[in-house]
Amino acid sequence: MGERRLYKYLDADGGLSMLYNSTLMFTNATQLNDPFDCLPKYVDFQPDSSGLHRGIPASFYSEMEYQKGLNRRDKTYICSLSKVHDSTTMWSYYNDNKGICVGLNMENVRQYTKHMNGMLLGCSELEVIYQGDTSESKPIDGPMITLCNLFATKSKEWQHEQEVRLIAYDPSPEYMKLLPNQNDKDRPIPWNTVRAFLDIGGECFESVYLGVNMDEKDKEKTIKIAKERNPDIKIYQMTIDPKAFRLKEKPIINS
């Protein structure tokens, strides 16, 4: 995976938090908005061709790997990024175009992710594969390929996201934090709703795109914080293309 620039869509509050704290947020795989996401039932597990599982009935092996998949899903945290910053559908998800999109310099980000304890070696950064039907699932060969396919296969209905995932497996407690609205002393916090946060440097923030309908106060805050994190950051206002059903970015001068 060699993308130099990837994008993170967020609502205004989430974007301000990401820039202010200089972090990437990872969400547990059981808490993603696609109910089919990362479910091992959609992976065709087969004994690997190396002969390591020779003699094991395929049905037994499949059930064994299915249970392993459920356990891995429980311990896996995902940061969802996109290859594009101008998807009209993606922008509509975040407060009706009132959010922001942060452009990340992945060459710089990788200097931080490689030190994150618990990263899945071999597939810590995955480009999502979109399938039309579960019948398109092909037999998986080898432990690392199994993990990669488990966490990076989705329905074609989501292909507009052009998603690339950063994967953290069983991250160390030092990365786990409660969100501000989770500090509920009257009831226990479900373990899988606690997010993992990776600290990154301001040089990772290459650009910021402001939503078409973003509030002026949120724009001012975002621009101020973005410039504090990286004085060389590029800031754009998303606009409606008068000649086509698409969004276009317009550079903000002297921001």
Proportion of beta-strand residues:
25-35%
Specify the overall morphology.
globular
Can you count the helices?
6
Low-confidence stretches: none
Strand order of the largest sheet: 6-10-4-2-12-11
Largest sheet, if any? 6 strands, antiparallel
Number of domains: 1
Question: Care to describe what's here?
Answer:
The protein is α+β, with helices and mostly antiparallel strands and 255 residues long. The chain has one domain (5-251). The chain has helices spanning 12-21, 58-75, 88-93, 106-113, 143-151, 216-229; strands at 5-10, 23-28, 44-45, 76-82, 100-105, 125-127, 129-131, 139-140, 153-155, 163-169, 176-177, 195-199, 205-210, 234-240, 247-251. The chain has a six-stranded antiparallel sheet with strand order 6-10-4-2-12-11. It has a five-stranded mixed sheet with strand order 1-5-13-14-15. The model has no long low-confidence stretch (mean pLDDT 83).
Which terms summarize this structure?
6-stranded antiparallel β-sheet, single chain, 27% strand, 5-stranded mixed β-sheet, 255 residues, alpha+beta
Question: What would you say about this model in short?
Answer:
With 255 residues, this protein is an alpha+beta fold. The chain has 6 helices and 15 strands. The protein has one domain (5-251).
